[in-house]
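Quick one, tokens below:
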């Protein structure tokens, strides 16, 4: 498991300004070593969405003597220093962002006196992608032809002299969209929402990738990986290349839809057609005519063009004699990202809602990642991060922070350490964890790597059906990404089931079944056979292979529990039970695998040496005492696939306590003298490492 650091390194008590990250210092590397960091995400050279010459300054620019005095380095030097300590650095490609900044220049326009934060010095103007593509500042920046010898030409064969005008995402009225979540409302800068479906923008992003790889990055992180589907929240995208692409999609697929009778698909413009029928693509978007087809088209597009950039990055790295990592920001791991997982080496997720207790979300994350490493970062919008920062600043909340890291590790993911991480565009601050606290947590995780495994021994599987669940989650999570509010009146049975199991300390796995549209359907009975119970929460739609998987699982003696709506193709069988989605006893016809009186979340992992590690997270936080209550005399009953003669309790401070397991029927029974924030109970034979 990677130990990631969310390494924006933005300044305290100041806006987190995209796209350019603050200059790096050598002392930062010492901090990262203390954190036992293996990989840095959002870590280097974001300035490509301002201009390529600016990006080169970040990567290779001179550092003056006064800055050298305090160990400041350019990004290529910082990357080299990280490599000396075995730390991988990812270059961040802000794919959706196209920036314009106010600037103050000398009269000769040969020096920048102020940028973004102005001070009333010199000549006022603008600096960004527009000026770069128009060769506006020849005394400051290399011409665009230096990077694109043939110039930039769009899909109509026209030369491009304004990257923003050419590549911006547009709403149904043709208006350019902004990436509001990164624009600081008290600043004049502008961030336009760019569209990767435009071939010009892809060529520009490839130039960003080339510069980052030349600067030595270990990998490329493609932020806003779902581009342009994130622009749906703004009623987009209806740019010319999206309209061309959708028209070609309809011509290829010829969907049987009476709405298209008499429509000339050679000239069809989806936006104009929707407006003529009274739809604006904002109000009740999911019910807009042809929305399902448009969604499918965009899913195919993000897969195609994300893969194009990923393949380019790998090929360019090899041309420089290196194998690089490719990753992306998969946000909340919505189904639209499933098809992209094949194209990355590392899964990175910027969770939609950061809360103090979300084991069920991490179990979904582990399922999404599969055999790949995953790094999670917090999100300041719609969650607890601002409150937690306030507590930590007062010397409180340490156990809450411990929970955020240990919960992820216990449930099969890695929660990154915040190092000046993003606090959004409104709050003037960044997130740094107390150094000693972060070091303590990371030292435990690094020193106990052998206790973590992707393979589990959980008896229960919960199916996440994309086709059955996506629409409900879309209704529940309908707000934009600057509020991340959730409509709790929308009941999502999958979420209720996983929360019910998690709250009752039931260890389980999630099995994701794609719909064949967002991602290929690879379901099969072999993925289910090791579970005694498979729960289908409101799985009312099954593909043919999913129905066959259920049938094969039942034929092998498995038990299927169905809640809410059942698919018509579900085969009738005595092994199929029905249950209410919030009644634990009905969801578990074979009883609990883990029995305890403690209010904990549990996950049972099968370790490489054949031992079993039961990870227990204690959420009993006392706000008045500002600590998780240490539970005493906790009984624990665990059903394992195989008997083990010994048991050892490993606490999060590293102490080990031998236990004497008793056998009752098919279970191992132990008693824990003390259960703190995070405890791992190992069932084993022989000596532990």
């Amino acid at each position: 498991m990677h130990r990631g650091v969310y390494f924006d390194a933005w300044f305290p008590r100041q806006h987190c300004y995209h796209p350019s990250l603050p200059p790096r210092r050598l002392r930062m590397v010492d901090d990262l070593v203390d954190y036992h960091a293996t990989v840095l995400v959002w870590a280097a050279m974001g300035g490509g969405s301002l201009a390529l010459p600016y990006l080169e300054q970040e990567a290779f620019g001179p550092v003056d003597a006064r800055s050298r005095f305090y160990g400041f380095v350019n990004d290529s030097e910082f990357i080299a220093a990280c490599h000396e300590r075995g730390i991988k650095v990812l270059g961040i490609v802000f794919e959706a962002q196209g920036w314009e900044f106010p600037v103050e220049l000398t009269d000769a326009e040969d020096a920048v006196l102020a940028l973004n934060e102005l001070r009333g010095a010199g000549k006022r103007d603008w600096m960004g992608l527009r000026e770069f593509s128009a060769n506006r500042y020849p005394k400051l920046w290399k011409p665009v032809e230096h990077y694109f010898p043939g110039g930039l030409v769009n899909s109509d064969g026209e030369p491009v002299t304004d990257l923003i005008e050419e590549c911006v995402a547009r709403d149904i009225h043709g208006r350019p969209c902004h990436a509001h979540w990164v624009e600081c409302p008290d600043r004049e800068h502008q961030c336009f929402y760019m569209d990767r479906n435009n071939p010009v923008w892809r060529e520009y992003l490839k130039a960003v990738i080339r510069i980052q790889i030349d600067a030595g990055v270990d990998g490329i992180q493609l932020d806003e990986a779902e581009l342009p589907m994130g622009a749906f929240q703004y009623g987009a995208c209806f740019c010319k290349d999206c309209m061309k692409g959708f028209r070609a999609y309809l011509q290829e697929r010829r969907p049987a839809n009476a709405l298209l009778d008499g429509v000339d698909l050679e000239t069809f413009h989806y936006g104009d057609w929707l407006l003529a029928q009274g739809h604006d693509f904002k109000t009740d978007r999911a019910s807009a005519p042809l929305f399902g087809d448009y969604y499918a088209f965009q899913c195919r597009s993000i897969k195609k063009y994300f893969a194009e950039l990923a393949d380019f990055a790998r090929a360019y790295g090899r041309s420089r004699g290196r194998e690089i990592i490719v990753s992306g920001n998969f946000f909340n791991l919505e189904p639209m990202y499933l098809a992209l997982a094949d194209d990355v080496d590392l899964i990175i997720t910027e969770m939609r809602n950061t809360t103090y207790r979300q084991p069920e979300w991490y179990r979904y994350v582990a399922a999404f990642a599969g055999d790949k490493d995953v790094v999670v970062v917090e999100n300041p919008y719609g969650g607890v991060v601002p409150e937690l920062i306030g507590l930590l600043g007062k010397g409180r909340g340490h156990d809450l922070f411990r929970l955020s890291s240990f919960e992820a590790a216990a449930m099969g993911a890695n929660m990154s350490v915040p190092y000046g991480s993003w606090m959004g565009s409104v709050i003037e601050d960044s997130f740094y964890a107390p150094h000693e606290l972060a070091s303590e947590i990371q030292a435990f995780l690094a020193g106990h790597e052998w206790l973590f495994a992707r393979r589990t021994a959980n008896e229960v599987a919960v199916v996440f059906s994309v086709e059955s669940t996506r629409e409900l989650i879309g209704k529940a999570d309908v707000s934009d990404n600057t509020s991340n509010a959730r409509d709790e009146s929308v009941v999502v049975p999958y979420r209720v089931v996983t929360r019910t199991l998690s709250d009752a300390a039931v260890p389980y796995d999630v099995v994701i079944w794609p719909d064949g549209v967002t991602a290929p359907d690879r379901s099969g009975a072999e993925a289910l056979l090791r579970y005694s119970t498979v729960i289908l929460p409101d799985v009312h739609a099954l593909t043919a292979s999913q129905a066959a998987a259920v049938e094969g699982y039942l034929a092998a003696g498995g038990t299927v529990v169905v809640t809410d709506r059942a698919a018509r193709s579900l085969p009738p069988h005595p092994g199929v039970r029905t249950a209410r989605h919030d009644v634990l006893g009905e969801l578990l016809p074979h009883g609990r695998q883990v029995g305890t009186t403690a209010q904990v979340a549990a996950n049972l992992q099968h370790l490489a040496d054949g031992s079993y590690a039961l990870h227990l997270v204690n959420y009993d936080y006392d706000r008045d005492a500002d600590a998780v209550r240490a539970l005493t005399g906790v009984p624990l009953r665990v059903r394992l696939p195989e008997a083990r003669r010994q048991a050892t309790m490993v606490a999060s401070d590293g102490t080990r306590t031998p236990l004497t397991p008793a056998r009752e029927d098919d279970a191992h029974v132990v008693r824990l003298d003390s259960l703190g924030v995070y405890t791992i109970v190992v069932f084993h034979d022989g000596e532990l490492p």
